[in-house]
# Entry
Amino acid sequence: MPTRSDFRRLALRRLTGDRLGVVYALLAVAELLVLLLAWQSGRAYNRQRQLVERNLVEFARFGATNFGYRAGALVANHAAMVSESLERAGELPDNRRLARARAALDSIAACRCEAALHVGSVHLLNRDGQAVAASPPMTSPVAPGVLSSLLARASSDAPAVRATDESGAPMFLAMTRAGTGPLGAERFLLTVYDVDSVRKKVFGFIYNTRPTLLPSVFGARRSNEDVIAIRVVLSGGTVLYESPSHSTWTSIAWVPFGPDTATRVQASLTVAAARELTGVIDDGMRRWWGLFTAFGATLVIALTALLVHRVAALTKLRGEFTATVSHELRTPLTEIMLYAELIVTGRTAGTTPTTEAAQVILAEAKRLHNLVENVLIVARTDRRMLRVRIGSHAPVPLLQTIIAGFTPIAAKRRSRVILEADDLPNVLCDPSAVAGVLLNLLDNAVRYGRHDQDVIVRATRATDTSLVIDVDDTGPGIPHAERARVLEPYVRLERDTESSAGGSGLGLAVVVALLTEMHGTLTILDSTRGGTCMRVTLPLG
# Structure
């Protein structure tokens, strides 16, 4: 039939379980919020990253477009100046018109200006693209498709500019309308520029001088080399021009070189300009900051849950300990009061039971004393205030005294304690501490073992430096999986809490604490008689 202590223990478990459920639910909600915030942070970072990438590409595209427009305009203006000189020449023969064009080109090349471009050759073409005059003849023919494209665009009186490598070598061409030749035939002037001259005096001039290719967001005094890198890539993959600026070539923008869709201008912001524009000091740290934060918060929540679980377990153990100790105190106090009342009322006066009553009172008082001592030792251990006085003592007389004091308690359970020991050297110990160790081990042996058993206390010399004391019983034993756990305070085996056997769960913890102070050890072994053998090892002295 369940006792009041059982009901109290059941109520404590239910209350602790309800509180733990609420705490764990709150921790689970906190973890979900952390994961949600981490997910939102990741999404926000990705959106910000995409926006930054678009901004960088747009800035690079702006610079590439500005570069291509300026380069094309510079060459187109150069070609237009030659075309105007031919328009003023009137209806001269083609050779003389070409000679005038060549003289105009040479005079422009001799000036010290941005239009001082060197020309490889010039050609006067008819409407079908056939050369009617050349100075000097072209070394590499222009691809028919390129020539027809230039003629089509130049027919609108606007200069046509194109870079190509379709003939196998890089070429830079300009086509302008050159008025009419004999009999009113339409003429066009094809100018083949020196590629190195275009690189240096067109692309290099635009890149290395102001105004800069990008807006003044980077500062009016910043050069193109500080903020942007430029490449001009022909249709066949030939790099016609590459700026000296260093870039990682990320966030690259491609734009066609003017109306020429085959040639493209590639642009990318430098690392310094990208950081200045976006404010990204350490992009790698930003990328993982949300995950680091989520991991840290998850770790804190996990540690909190572990701490709560540990505190709840300790609370449960202390609650059960309180209920058990209450029961342990009530039983001997009841017997002491009962037999003391018999003696006071004189019901046992002059008879043998008076002595038996006194023995019962003495035994139960010793049990109370041992229980109080165990509680005090655990409390001192928790506060690191446990102290022992170690000296050299003979073990056999000490064991005999301890066993003699425990004999009345063992007799109540019809058990006997047998000492097996020869002459042994002295050990380094505290007699009161050794008494506390053996009394707890003997109490466990007779409490949880069967009635009418023999508990053997065997003392032997193990090595030249240690003495072994075995407390051997014939009880149910301790499972191997539980042997480490039962050494902790307030821990009892499940079978013992459900049985009628008492116990506070402090005995073995007290034994370990006392032996640690005396530089000894406790080992749980299987008894050859079917029970448990508790082995105590102490240093010789």
